[in-house]
Design brief:
By secondary structure, the protein is of the alpha+beta class. The protein has 4 domains: about 25-60 and about 700-714; about 70-215 and about 250-320 and about 640-670, Immunoglobulin-like; about 220-250, no CATH class; about 355-530, von Willebrand factor, type A domain (Rossmann fold, 3-Layer(aba) Sandwich), CATH 3.40.50.410. It starts with a helix and ends with a helix.
């Protein structure tokens, strides 16, 4: 009896234990789950407040002064960014523009700074002078080999001496490094450069770039760059296709991310075309123009302009005064230099049927205003097709796709289908331009019908592997002609111009939807016009003169032939001849004794010579002899190249021994009209990513406990 009673009691207690276990476990799980949920809610509201605060800071410029702040790597404290102010003063004489560019860097922090600024210049700009101003000290720069300039700069930086160095990354992309800027002080760098003025269809054009579109970097990240790239340098890591990616990828921010006085430019242009100027216009900015005889002073209406787009200025001669020929002369170090411009009057309106292939960039850098401009440009190009033409449309981003497998007749049905296709194009993904070139250039026009094959490439050119693309064009062009259309407020004009040169075509740029008709109509009119081919120039009986370019490219209607020669005195004539599409000969002579005086022709000749030598590097390697010749020319004519740099070094140290110096990479502004997805921000003082991760971590225990609770009661 007692045994049975004891057994029943033990069984009852075991049953109570089994019943009460789930209850106690359930209560424990409920408590833990509740605490976790409250923690997650608190983290969420904390994160929300941080994000709201960051948003408010962005709207008001991140502090009362509107300056972007960076995290100091050693102390972890916020440091104000270096403020940038820029001044352009441009003097145009004939076909050469000389620009004095002053970059002022103000150190608003409490520590010594090194400023690093990657900035654009016009395509093929010739930088020939550097001057650094620090307080009352003015240091004149010298041209050195790139390695020697780097050595002198690093030594001066480590010794506390102020120094400035300017390097060329691309023919239109440079870097200024400025060592030991004292706290609270401003140091200025004055650069002088020259560029050729473009003359097309009776109108002169000058472009001043102030920012750049972030470039797509193709290829595989190099092994030595596998570690995360510091926010202080470029946002891109070097790759096997773009080994200098970190040097051409400056941080990109919005105007409200910098101080209200930073990244503004004062601009003044003095135009003297050598003939009366009838009108001055701009598709990018409002201008105020003041005439003084044949000279016109041009300034932006708003005063200082925001550095978020190219400044484009065009001027046309008084009606009836458009030049058909011009010659300029300079004597430099005892040698004569002559530049000639000849505008053939190609009035023949005969045209041949064309196979026209449109290639449109639909990558992420084209998002926003750029893709709208590109679609409108392509649609306008489709309107130029006649019933005798054939066409195709190719789009590219990370992949390349075609509307048709092969070019189709320009019938009404095919054109309507193409228009619907183009209107539906968006912008996303990478800029894999090489594949699009393969598809566009490898096609062949029909043998019957006398078709000429033309490719129109519409892009912002935001890529870092330009040389490889030029090599592809050179190798695969065949009988095709390549025309480029630069899109956006800050296109890569180096790519536009050189791709058209290697493609035996021409180029234009569109920066405003409201002003796109004229440049596009001019481009498509040229493509429909006869070409003056097989051009030969005869400079007289003397031989051995160094003429550049050696063989002028084919000319389209309204385009000038420009050549420059060293060692030829201004007497006698130069004769130009060529062949028209119907096979007839064309010939015209120009007297050299009428040459007008000009400055900077020797630098223009040296730049053309250097470009000719550098063309050999499209194979991926420039031979030692050509490299030595480029260096010799650059040192002789005081030019910045891939192998030479300007360096200015103060003799006396200014930074106290033992006082550290921080490096501040000054950002560029996001080009106007670009999507915010193109921004390349530095690290800021808000650890938003960390807080978001903590919030997710806080939610994970809740999810796990809920799943465990469900299993317990199953």
């Amino acid at each position: 009896m007692q045994s049975n009673a004891l057994s029943r009691e033990m069984t009852s207690r075991a049953s109570e234990t089994r019943c009460s276990g789930p209850a106690r476990q359930s209560r424990w799980l409920a408590v833990v789950e509740g605490i976790s949920l409250w923690l997650a809610v608190l983290l969420f509201f904390f994160l929300q407040s941080v994000v709201a605060e960051a948003s408010e800071q962005e709207q008001r410029g991140q502090d009362s002064a509107g300056a972007l702040h960076f995290i100091d790597q050693e102390s972890g404290r916020k440091q104000p960014a270096t403020l940038l102010q820029t001044d352009y003063k441009v003097e145009v004489g004939g076909l050469i523009a000389n620009t004095r560019l002053v970059q002022s860097f103000e150190n608003t922090s409490q520590q010594w700074q090194e400023g690093v600024y990657v900035f654009p210049l016009p395509a093929q700009a010739s930088v020939y002078s550097l001057k650094m101003t620090a307080g009352e000290r003015v240091i004149i720069g010298e041209i050195q080999t790139r390695d020697e300039a780097r050595r002198q700069y690093e030594q001066a930086k480590s010794e506390g001496r102020q120094a400035a160095k300017v390097d060329q990354q691309r023919p239109n992309l440079f870097t200024t490094r400025l060592a030991n800027i004292p706290p609270g002080e401003t140091v200025s760098v004055e650069l002088r450069y020259q560029q050729a003025v473009r003359y097309q269809s009776g109108e002169f054009e000058l472009r001043l770039p102030t920012t750049l579109t972030p470039r797509y970097i193709p290829g595989v990240v190099m092994a030595e760059a596998s570690a995360p790239v510091s926010w202080q340098g470029g946002w891109a890591a070097p790759t096997n296709e773009v080994p200098d990616a970190d040097a051409i990828s400056p941080l990109t921010v919005l105007p409200q991310d910098v101080a209200a006085t930073s990244h503004r430019a004062n601009v003044e242009l003095q135009l003297n075309a050598g003939l009366p100027i009838g009108s001055v216009t701009s598709s990018s900015h409002g201008l105020t123009s003041t005439w003084d005889g044949n000279t016109v002073i041009v300034v932006p209406k708003t005063g200082a302009i925001l550095m978020d787009r190219d400044l484009v200025v065009r001027w046309a001669p008084v009606r009836g005064q458009a030049p058909s020929a011009a010659v300029f002369h300079e004597t430099w170090q005892g040698e004569d230099y002559l530049m000639t411009m000849l505008v053939p009057g190609l009035d023949n309106t005969d045209s041949l049927p064309r196979e026209l292939v449109f290639v449109i960039d639909t990558s992420g850098s084209m998002a926003g205003e750029s893709i709208r401009q590109a679609r409108a440009s392509l649609l306008r190009g489709l309107d130029t097709l006649s019933v005798d033409d054939r066409f195709n449309v190719i789009q590219f981003n990370s992949q390349t796709t075609s509307l048709y497998g092969d070019a189709r007749p320009a019938s009404i049905a095919n054109l309507n289908q193409a228009r619907r296709y183009v209107r539906g194009l968006g912008a996303d993904g990478g800029t894999e331009m090489a594949g699009a070139l393969d598809v566009a250039l490898n096609g062949q026009a029909p043998e019957q019908g006398g078709y000429i094959r033309q490719v129109v490439f519409i892009t912002d050119g935001a890529v870092g592997n330009e040389a490889a693309l030029f090599r592809k064009i050179q190798d695969q062009l065949g009988d095709t002609r390549l025309f480029t259309v630069g899109i956006g407020s800050a296109p890569n004009m180096h790519l536009m111009g050189e791709a058209a040169r290697f493609g035996r075509g021409t180029y234009t740029a569109i920066s405003d939807l409201n002003a796109m008709e004229q440049p596009l109509d001019e481009l498509f009119s040229k493509m429909q016009s006869p070409v003056l081919a097989d051009i030969v120039t005869d400079w007289g009986a003397d031989t051995g003169h160094d003429v550049l370019p050696r063989r002028p490219g084919d000319l389209f209607r309204g385009e000038p032939m420009i050549q420059i020669i060293r060692g030829r005195a201004p007497h006698g004539d130069v004769t130009v001849s060529g062949r028209l599409p119907d096979g007839s000969a064309w010939r015209q002579s120009l007297p050299l004794h009428e040459a007008a005086s000009a400055k900077g022709l020797h630098r223009h000749w040296a730049r053309e010579k250097i470009n000719l030598l550098m063309d050999s590097s499209l194979s991926g390697h420039i031979n030692e002899d050509d490299q030595n010749e480029v260096t010799r020319l650059a040192l002789a004519h005081q030019l910045v190249t891939r192998y030479t740099s300007f360096i200015a070094v103060d003799k006396s140290p200014v930074r106290p021994t033992g006082m550290p110096v921080a490096t501040d990479h000054v950002p560029t502004l996001l080009p106007a009209g670009s999507e915010h997805a193109m921004l390349r921000y530095p690290q800021t003082a808000t650890p938003a990513a960390l807080l978001m991760a903590l919030g997710l971590i806080g939610l994970l225990p809740c999810i796990a406990l809920m799943m465990l609770r469900r299993r317990v009661f199953e």
